[in-house]
Amino acid sequence: MDNKPVPDIVVGRLPIYLRALTFLKTEHREITSSQELGDRLGISSAQIRKDLSHFGEFGKQGTGYDIRHLEANLKQILHVDRMWDVVLIGAGDLGHALANYRGFAGRGFHIAAVFDKSGDKIGREIVEGLVVEDVVTLSERVKQVGWKMAIIAVPAEEAQPVANTLMEAGVKALLNYAPISLMVPSGIRVEHIDPAVHLQHLTYYLG
Amino acid sequence: MDNKPVPDIVVGRLPIYLRALTFLKTEHREITSSQELGDRLGISSAQIRKDLSHFGEFGKQGTGYDIRHLEANLKQILHVDRMWDVVLIGAGDLGHALANYRGFAGRGFHIAAVFDKSGDKIGREIVEGLVVEDVVTLSERVKQVGWKMAIIAVPAEEAQPVANTLMEAGVKALLNYAPISLMVPSGIRVEHIDPAVHLQHLTYYLG
Question: A-contacting residues of B 128-157, CB under 8 Å?
C-alpha cells in the first residue's frame, strides 16, 4: 500500500472480484483463495494478490481470504457501501431493459429517473413508480436533485449532446451504451458498454 | 513477439485499440501515436506499445502508427477480417435493442437468428428479415447451421440452461448479459456484460 494512484486497470478489476465474492457467499462459503478466484475469473492468482495489495493486507498465507471481510472492504473501496441514484437517458428497448435490470439491486445502484425526448414515451410508467420525463427538463432536474451518475441509452447521434447536457448540469460519471466514443473533459469519468468489443475479444480465440 | 500465449487481458484491449483507430479514420487521419491513443483511451502509451509488441512491429520511433495498416492488422489478429454469424437468445427489451444495435455492422458481426420461449414473441419479426424462432428448436438449429457464437439476453434463472444447450450444440463463445456468472467447461469462452461492474468502476472515483 502506497500513496500513488492505483492504476485504472486495477480499479476496473475490483468490481469483478466483488461479484465473485458475493457469488461465493450465496454458496455459503466463508473462505476463498486467490487461486480459486483466479480459476473462476480467468485471471492469474498472482495478479489478484498484486491488485488487492494496493489496498491493504486482506489474506493470510495458507489461510486465504475471509469472503465477508474482503467483500465488505471492496464495497467500501468502490464506495458501494451506500446507494447511488443513477439517471437513465433513453426509454427505448435498451432503456426498458435497464430500468428492469435486476442486477443493480444490492450492488449499490438505483435508477432514480428516466428521460426521453419522444412524446410517445414521456409520462408513461417504464417500471412501477418510474415515469418517463421530458429530456428538455433534464438539465434543470439534474441541477435541482444533484445526481452525479447517468446511463446513456440513446441513439449514437444523440449521445454526445446528451452527455454535454449532463456534464454541464453537474454529472461526473457516465455509462455510455451508444456505439460512439464520448469526448469528455478531464475530471469526468466515462465507461463504455460496447458488445462488439466483447465479441471481438471472443473471436480472437475462435480463429 | 514470441510463442507464449498472449495474456487475455492484453487480448481484451485490442478491440478497444481497433475501435479508436476506426474512429480516427472517420476523422480522415492517417497516422497516430501510442501517446495519442493512450490519451484518448486513458491507457499509458507504454502499455499500448507493450500490448502491440506481442503481435509484431507496427510503429516506427518518431513516425508513429499508420492507422490503416494497424487497423487491418488488428482486424486480422482478432479474426474480424471476416463476418461472424451470432445467435441471439432472448427477444425481450434487451433482445430487441441488440437486434437493432447499429454497432455490429462493420465490426465483424451479424445477428443471424433470434430465439425466445414466449409464444407471444415466436413468429414475430424482431427486425426486418429476422423472425423470432422457438427456443425448443435451438439445439437442432445450432447443430444444423454450425453457429459458434451466441449472445444470451434471457433472465438470470434461464441463462445457465440456455448456455448449456448452446454449448452442447457446439457453440464455443458466449456473450452473457444475464446478471449471473455462467459456469462453462474449459475450451469455451465467455464474456459478461454487467452494467453494475462498470458503475462500480465509476463510483471508485466519485468517493
Answer: 148-149, 151, 155-156
Residue of B nearest to A11 (CA): B201
Question: Which segments of chain B belong to CATH 1.10.10.10?
Answer: 8-77
Task: Specify the pLDDT at position B168.
Answer: 98
In which band, very low, low, confident or very high, does the pLDDT at A103 lie, cut at 50, 70 and 90? Answer: confident
Within chain B, residue ranges assigned H as helices are: 8-26, 34-41, 45-53, 67-77, 93-99, 138-145, 156-168, 195-206
**Which of A22, A45, A75, A199 best tests the B interface by mutation, with the highest count of B CBs <10 A?**
A199
Average pLDDT, chain A: 93
Q: What is the CATH number of domain B8-77?
A: 1.10.10.10
Q: Is B205 on the interface with A (CB under 8 A)?
A: yes
3-state secondary structure of B205: helix
Tell me if ipTM is over 0.90: yes
Domain(s) of CATH 3.40.50.720: residues in chain B: 84-196
Computed on alpha carbons and rounded to an integer, the radius of gyration of chain A in Å comes to 19
Which CATH architecture group holds A84-196? 3-Layer(aba) Sandwich (3.40)
Tell me, yes or no, if A25 comes closer than 8 A to chain B by beta carbon: no
